[in-house]
Amino acid sequence: MKRFLLILTALLQVAMFVGCSSKAEEQPGEIYRKYASWPGLAVAQVTDFELCDTVSVDVVMLIADNDSAWQQIVAEFDIRSDSGSTSWLAPIDQPSTHTSWDDNPVLRVVAMPERHTVGIYRIDNEEQYDALVDYQLNNLHK
Amino acid sequence: MKRTMTNDEFDRLWQRAEVEGYAAKLSQEYPAWRAKQRRNSGFAVVVAVMMVVAIPMLMPHHDGYGKVYCNRSNTAEAEWVSLTSEILMTV
């Protein structure tokens, strides 16, 4: 009996270890990979950014090092303002196109021209969409 | 009728043999039991090592994010996470 428990525990541990190892080998998403090689651009992907206890989203941040790199971003995302911040929903593969929420996966793009920064939040379902709005509202009142 | 010794009984016998100095003799007289005892100890060590490695990997993050990938090597994860939150507050 003792030996059986030891073997069972060992097998469970192997399964857990394999599961953890495969998780650790996750790769960054397509959006990150697209922009990571652009010159003059610092790119980061934050996975599972928690909006609340049960909902998280993947976020890609782009920061241009110089005006030249920023102009590439402006053209890519069709950013028409030089100040403040603008935000829109975009289809997954067309970040410059403005769309509305219709239960399909979208990107929430936030552009801050003065900081040469763009944030791209991937929203796959209504739960994430609602949590993102709630996150903004809750934190604005803090 | 001859009764088979249980694992626990052999363990107790072995502990007493170690204390009283006849462990080597016991090992010669019961080589199969001693081998079994060593295998069990080996299993226990393997399981303990795997738990030490696997359990921390299973612990959930409490930093509010999973992982940060970046194309620059000299940046701090915390700064990116902070920016991720901050930029949401600007719109």
Short description:
Chain A is 39% helix and 27% strand. Chain A is an alpha+beta fold. Chain A has a five-stranded antiparallel beta sheet with strand order 1-2-5-4-3, with helices on both faces.
Number of beta-strand segments of chain A: 5
Radius of gyration of chain B: 27 Å
The proportion of strand residues of chain A reads 25-35%
Sequence of secondary-structure elements of chain B: HHHEH
Average pLDDT metric of chain A: 87
Low-confidence stretches of chain A are none
Notes on the protein architecture:
The complex is a heterodimer of chains A (142) and B (91). Chain A is α+β, with helices and mostly antiparallel strands and 142 residues long. Chain A is 39% helix and 27% strand. Chain A has helices spanning 2-24, 30-36, 67-77, 126-140, and strands at residues 41-50, 56-64, 86-91, 106-112, 117-123. A five-stranded antiparallel beta sheet of chain A has the order 1-2-5-4-3, with helices on both faces. In chain A, a hairpin with a 5-residue loop joins β1 and β2. The mean pLDDT of chain A is 87. Chain B has 91 residues and is mainly alpha-helical. At the A-B interface, α1, β1, β2, β5 and α4 of A face α3, β1 and α4 of B. β1 (41-50) of chain A pairs antiparallel with β1 of chain B.
Which key terms come to mind for this protein?
heterodimer; A: 142 residues; alpha+beta; 5-stranded antiparallel beta sheet; 4 helices; 5 strands; 39% helix; elongated; B: 91 residues; mainly alpha
How are the SSEs placed, and which strands pair?
The complex is a heterodimer of chains A (142) and B (91).
Chain A: H1 2-24, H2 30-36, E1 41-50, E2 56-64, H3 67-77, E3 86-91, E4 106-112, E5 117-123, H4 126-140
Chain B: H1 7-20, H2 23-29, H3 31-58, E1 68-70, H4 77-88
